[in-house]
Every structure is written in C-alpha cells, then in structure tokens.
Amino acid sequence: MVVTTASLATHGLAFAHPGARRPVFEELSVTLRPGHPLIILGPNGVGKSTLLRCLAGLALPTRGTVTFAGMPLRGLNDAQRARRIAFMAQSEAETFAFTVADIVLTGRAAHLGLFHRPGKADRGRAARALHRLGIGHFAARSMHELSGGEQQMVRMARALVQDSPVRLLDEPMAHLDLANQRQVLDVVRALASEGLAIGMSSHDPSHALACGGDVLLLGRTRAVAGPVEQIIAPALLKEAYGLPIDVLRTERGRDVAVPDFGGPSSAARYLSRRPDP
C-alpha cells in the first residue's frame, strides 16, 4: 500500500559554525519527495551530517528555512517533529547497557503519552523492525556487546519503528559489511516504494545508483542536485571528490561507480599471476 506523505524542503538554507570564516554550505534549496529517496553525497567536511540535522530540526540554520508540508519546521515542538521526522544519527554515545529491544522501543516515544509505557503493539513493531533488518536475534543482547556495525543496524531499526513519514538516515551503511549494506539498501528502497520520504547520506555513489531517486552532490565549491542518472556522472563526481570515478555497468545490468584508487592495472595483476614459461 502506498502511503501519501508531505514533502520536507529547504529554501535558501545556509549553515555556519559560530566564528567560522566560511559557511559549511549556503543557498541550498532541495526537496525530499514521497517515494523518491534523496541521497546526499560528497567528500568529508562539506556538511552532509549538518544538513540532515537541519532537516531534522536538530540544528538551527544560519539562514533560510526548512518546511514540512509547506509549514516552517520551527513551529513544531519536539514531539510534533518526531511524529513527522525520524532521524538516525551516524553514531551515538551509549552510556547504559540497555538491551537492543529497549533501544529500538525508544523510537515509539513520540507516539506515547508522557507517563505511558510501551505496550504489546509497540513491542511487536520493534520485533518486526529488527527482523526486517535481519537482526531479530539481537533483541535480548546488550548494546555494549555489539560491534559498531551491529549498533548501526539497531539505530536503523529504531528509526523504522518511529513510523514517521520522513526518515533521515546519516550514513546508515557506515561500518557495515557488504551483505548488511545490501540489507539496508533493500529496506530504503522498500520504504520509498511505500511512499515515504527518505533522505540518506553516504560516501559511496554506488549507493545512490542502487536506490534511484534524486541526488544532492555537495562539493567544496558548489552543490548540484537532480535525478540520479543526471548527477552520478564522471565529470560531476570528479569535480566533487577530486579523483576520477567511472560509472560502469556490470554483467548483472547494475550501474556502479568505481573510483580510481591507483595501484597496478588489471593487466599487470594478470601478468604477475602467470606461471613462468
């Protein structure tokens, strides 16, 4: 079933740290549309995480506005904002040895009254989110027992149970092995197909190709946005990242972005493996 949701948009957004000589970014106008994931790409230090925090209402922009369904985000209190926007941070400091199930259940807080405890339905949602990500067997374990990648999957599950029409994911594939990256990408594609608005940052242009939708490519001198097939192009990627990046089609018919990391060519590697005559 497709869910109709409202768009989250920025208008002339700028952000600068106090005392900084230059803004992290400026004049950003982008829209997260229901059913069309927006993948935010760019090198370190260009403001991907800061932009997501501004979109979530957790950081105050220096200039410009963020709107949900055309209404300024600033006009919402914390609970109202959480019912509309779920934010998954790139990392968190875990200070208490909560179980995975309890951590995921905190995603239901915005839907509960001040003195209400999660009920059976909430626990069912948490269990389904964990199973959707293939980590149902983690439920009774302490977060302190998990690796960084496993903790990342738990934070993703918490964002799922928040049941907000907008999901903002700050590098959800960080620390994940290839199979778990695929698991998260499957979930992102499924959420978009359900009509949710998804904003996700990544360091890998191939993640954008796998998701489809729209791309915001933040560079050090400019930002460009548009459909994935328009933005994930060698010239734009080289300008943003400062090294050649090819866009190739695999034998399976998938497009991937392949950076030139240097090193021996494939021919040289082949020759080095040949037995002596």
Q: Helices and strands in order, then pairings?
A:
Elements: E1 8-15, E2 25-28, E3 31-32, E4 38-41, H1 48-55, E5 63-68, E6 71-72, H2 78-84, E7 85-88, H3 100-105, H4 120-132, H5 148-161, E8 166-169, H6 178-193, E9 197-201, H7 205-211, E10 214-218, E11 223-227, H8 228-231, H9 234-241, E12 245-249, E13 255-259, H10 266-273
Helix pairs in contact: 4-5
Walk me through the structure:
By secondary structure, the chain is an alpha/beta fold. The chain has one domain: Rossmann fold, CATH 3.40.50.300. The protein has helices spanning 48-55, 78-84, 100-105, 120-132, 148-161, 178-193, 205-211, 228-231, 234-241, 266-273, and strands at residues 8-15, 25-28, 31-32, 38-41, 63-68, 71-72, 85-88, 166-169, 197-201, 214-218, 223-227, 245-249, 255-259. The strands form three sheets. It has a six-stranded mixed beta sheet, sandwiched between helices. Strands 1, 2, 3, 5 and 6 form a five-stranded antiparallel beta sheet that branches. Strand 12 (245-249) and strand 13 form a beta hairpin. Helix 4 crosses helix 5 (148-161). The longest helix has 16 residues, at 178-193. The protein is globular. The model has no long low-confidence stretch (mean pLDDT 89).
Question: Which ranges are low-confidence, i.e. pLDDT below 50, for 5 or more consecutive residues?
Answer: none
CA-CA gap between termini:
64 Å
Note the quaternary state here.
Answer: single chain
Strand order of the largest sheet: 7-8-9-4-10-11
Shape: globular
* Rg, Cα atoms, Å: 20 Å
Order of helices and strands: EEEEHEEHEHHHEHEHEEHHEEH
CATH architecture: 3-Layer(aba) Sandwich
Q: Output the number of helix runs.
A: 10
Strand content: 15-25%
Q: Output mean pLDDT.
A: 89
Q: Write down how many β-strands occur, each being a DSSP E stretch of 2 or more residues.
A: 13
CATH topology-level fold name: Rossmann fold
- Biggest sheet, open or closed, and with what strands and sense? 6 strands, mixed
| Class by SSE composition | alpha/beta
Helix coverage percent: 25-40%
Count of domains: 1
CATH level-1 class? Alpha Beta
Function: Part of the ABC transporter complex HmuTUV involved in hemin import. Responsible for energy coupling to the transport system.
Keywords: ATP-binding, Nucleotide-binding, Translocase, Transport
Domain ABC transporter: 8-245
Protein name: ABC transporter ATP-binding protein
